[in-house]
């Protein structure tokens, strides 16, 4: 039976990306499911949750698919955005915010955009995938 796996993000440097995403999401790199051009990140229970694949193509500025990282409050969103920025995330230029967004658009060290969504204010319209 066909099953949905886990998201895979194309990156220029799997080691650098693994360092960012393991710190960002409190994951670990799986020794069993990794290679020089691939990293599998696992959660606390050992489940595979994110793949990082070496890619020569540049990140899309307005991707049709992206990661949403979820928090429960605005204070938590502010704290997590600050923490992610300290880990190497950046704030890309983003003109797609609605009037009162529940999300903040960030980019990982490779330039892949993702959102930090405050569930206490969700859903807003116009997220990364909404206007692409």
TrEMBL record:
Pfam families the record matches? Glyoxalase_6
Q: Which CDD domains match?
A: VOC (cd06587)
Give all residue intervals belonging to the VOC domain: 3-119
Protein name from the UniProt record:
VOC family protein
Q: Which organism is it from?
A: Pseudonocardia tropica
